[in-house]
Design goal:
This protein has about 450 residues and is an alpha+beta fold. It folds into three domains: about 50-130, no CATH class; about 145-260 and about 410-450, no CATH class; about 265-405, no CATH class. Helix content is about 20%, strand content about 30%. It has helices spanning about 1-25, 140-145, 150, 160-175, 205-210, 240-245, 270-280, 330-335, 415-425, 435-440, and strands spanning about 35-45, 50-55, 55-60, 65-70, 75-80, 85-90, 90-95, 95-100, 110-115, 115-120, 120-125, 135-140, 185-190, 215-220, 225, 230, 265-270, 290-295, 315-320, 325-330, 345-350, 355-360, 365-370, 380, 390, 400-405, 415, 445-450. Strands 4-3-8-11-12-1-13 form a seven-stranded mixed β-sheet. Strands 7-6-5-2-9-10 form a six-stranded antiparallel β-sheet, with no helix packed on it. The chain has a four-stranded antiparallel β-sheet with strand order 17-26-21-24. Strand 19 and strand 20 form a beta hairpin. Helix 4 (about 160-175) packs across helix 5, helix 4 runs antiparallel to helix 9 (about 415-425) and helix 4 (about 160-175) crosses helix 10 (about 435-440). The structure holds zinc ion. Zinc ion binds near residues 179, 180, 187 and 193.
C-alpha cells in the first residue's frame, strides 16, 4: 500500500513537472506583436490625380502634418505635378508628399482615387527619378487582403479554396513586405506582386475567407514562405529550381488536381519565319532556324536533363543556318507568349481542313457541301529525325511549328484550379480543409496564426 501511494505521488510530481515545462518553455518561433500596416503602390508617374472621399476629408502635408485643405464628401480635388512642384486644384503647395484621409476614421469610409475606392489613407509623392506622382494606399494588412483575394481567385469558388488563396496571399505579402522600399512603398498593385483592386474589388465571400483565416500564415522553419501561386500546373507542379533556379524546400513537384482548368490543354502555332525573326530581335544571331532540339514530353516524373520533373522545359536549343542558341524554357515562354513551359513541339505541314462532298437530303435533292475534316497532319521525317529530340524545319511552304502545352503559369506552389479541385472533392463542411490544400502545394509547411 505504502509502495502504491509512493508511486502515485511520484507520478503526480512527474506529471506536474512535465506540464510546467510545457508552459514554461520560452515562446519560440515567428510571432508578430500586431497586424502589420502595408503600403501599396497603386500608381506611379501620374501627371494628374483626382482624389475624393465618401465623407468630409482632409489633405495634409504628410511630413509637417499641416492641413492644406478640407473638403466636403464627394468633392473632387485635382493634384498635379510640374517640375518638382505639386499643385492642389491648380495652386502650388509647399509639400513634397500629400496625405488624403477621411475625417471619420471608423473603418467604414473610403478615399477615392481616379474613381476607384480605397480603405485607409492615400499619400502622393513624386515618383523617384520621374516627373509624375506615385500614389500609395496605406492600410492594415487584412483590409489589403480584402482587395487582393477577389482579384486573384473567383469569389464564387468553394470556400476552402478561397481561404487557401487568402492565406497564400497573406503569406506572400509578409514575405515581400519590403520589395519596393526604394520606391516608397511595400508592394505594388500588379501581377509583379499581387493584383490589388482596393475596396472597389471587394466581395462578400472573399472578405469572409480573409476574416475566417485572420492572421494565419504558411511557415517553413518558423519563417513565412515565398508563397508562389499560379492558375493551373497542367497535372503536376514543379520544383522551384527547375523554373527560376532557386531551390525552396517547400516548392516541390506534386500531383495537381487542376484537370477542370480551361488551360489544361492548349496549342499555339508558330511560323518558322516568325520564330527566326523573334530570335534575331532578341539578339540571337543564328540565322534561319533549321531545327529545334527538345526531348519528347513524357508523363511525370520526367528525368530528361532539358526538362523538370513535371516535364516543364528547362532548356530548348535552336539550331540555325549560322549557329545555335540554347534558351531557358521561361525565356522561350515569354518570347512567344505561351501559357506555361510545360509543352512539346512538332513541325507539321497541315492538310486541307475541308473537303467538298455530294450529299442527298431526305427529299432526294442533291447539293454540294463543304465538310470540315480532322485528319491527322502529316509529320515530317528526315535524316535529322534519327535523333528523336531534333525537330527539323525544312522550309517547305505551309510548314508550321505546333506547340502543344498544359497549364497556365509558372507551376510553382499553389495551383488555383487544383485548390478548387481539391475543395470540391474534400470533406463537406470541414472549415479547416484549406490547411490540407496548402500543405499539399507547399510541402513540409505549417499553418500558424501569427498575430
Ligand atoms: Zn511589385
Amino acid at each position: 500500500m505504502k509502495r502504491l501511494i509512493f508511486s502515485l505521488i511520484t507520478l503526480t510530481v512527474l506529471l506536474a513537472i512535465m506540464t510546467l515545462t510545457a508552459y514554461a518553455s520560452p515562446q519560440s518561433g515567428y510571432q508578430l506583436a500586431e497586424q502589420p500596416i502595408i503600403k501599396v503602390g497603386i500608381w506611379s508617374n501620374q501627371s494628374n490625380v483626382l482624389v475624393s472621399a465618401d465623407t468630409r476629408f482632409a489633405i495634409t502635408n504628410e511630413k509637417t502634418k499641416e492641413i492644406l485643405g478640407t473638403f466636403p464628401g464627394k468633392e473632387k480635388v485635382s493634384i498635379t505635378v510640374n517640375n518638382e512642384q505639386i499643385f492642389l486644384n491648380g495652386k502650388p503647395v509647399l509639400a513634397t508628399s500629400l496625405k488624403v484621409e477621411p475625417s471619420l476614421t471608423d473603418g467604414n469610409h473610403y478615399v477615392e482615387v481616379n474613381r476607384k475606392q480605397y480603405r485607409g489613407t492615400i499619400t502622393l509623392h513624386r515618383t523617384t527619378g520621374k516627373m509624375g506622382l506615385t500614389v500609395v494606399n496605406t492600410l492594415p494588412l487584412e483590409q489589403y487582403l480584402y482587395g487582393i483575394v477577389p482579384d486573384e481567385m473567383p469569389s464564387e469558388w468553394p470556400a476552402e479554396a478561397v481561404k487557401a488563396q487568402a492565406v497564400a496571399a497573406r503569406t506572400f505579402a509578409l514575405y515581400n513586405l519590403h520589395k519596393h522600399a526604394a520606391d516608397g512603398y511595400d508592394v505594388c498593385a500588379t501581377v509583379d506582386c499581387q493584383v490589388y483592386g482596393g475596396k472597389s474589388s471587394e466581395t462578400e465571400q472573399a472578405t469572409k475567407a480573409v476574416d475566417s483565416t485572420y492572421g494565419q500564415v504558411i511557415l517553413y522553419n518558423e519563417k513565412p514562405i515565398q508563397a508562389f501561386f499560379h492558375s493551373s500546373s497542367g497535372g503536376f507542379t514543379e520544383n522551384s529550381e527547375n523554373v527560376w533556379g532557386t531551390a525552396f524546400p517547400y516548392l516541390r513537384a506534386v500531383a495537381d488536381y487542376d484537370q477542370k482548368s480551361p488551360a489544361s490543354k492548349w496549342e499555339k502555332n508558330l511560323l518558322p519565319a516568325d520564330l527566326s525573326a523573334a530570335l534575331k530581335r532578341e539578339g540571337y544571331n543564328i540565322g534561319e532556324v533549321r531545327a529545334i532540339e527538345l526531348s519528347v514530353l513524357q508523363s511525370p516524373p520526367v528525368s530528361d536533363p532539358d526538362r523538370g520533373i513535371s516535364g516543364r522545359v528547362k532548356s530548348i536549343r535552336m539550331i540555325g543556318d549560322k549557329g545555335s542558341a540554347t534558351l531557358t524554357g521561361t525565356k522561350f515562354r515569354t518570347l512567344f507568349g505561351l501559357k506555361s513551359t510545360l509543352f512539346d513541339i512538332k513541325v507539321i505541314i497541315p492538310l486541307d481542313k475541308s473537303v467538298d462532298v455530294r450529299i442527298t437530303d431526305s427529299y432526294g435533292d442533291r447539293e454540294m457541301k463543304s465538310i470540315e475534316i480532322n485528319l491527322p497532319p502529316r509529320q515530317e521525317t528526315g535524316l535529322l529525325n534519327e535523333k528523336q529530340n531534333i525537330r527539323r524545319i525544312t522550309g517547305r511552304p505551309g510548314e508550321m511549328i505546333v506547340v502543344t502545352g498544359s497549364g497556365w503559369g509558372h507551376g510553382l506552389g499553389l495551383s488555383q484550379w487544383g485548390a478548387k479541385g481539391m475543395a470540391e472533392k474534400g470533406p463537406a463542411g470541414d472549415p479547416t480543409y484549406f490547411k490540407e490544400i496548402l500543405k499539399h502545394y507547399y510541402q513540409s509547411t505549417v499553418i500558424k496564426k501569427v498575430y
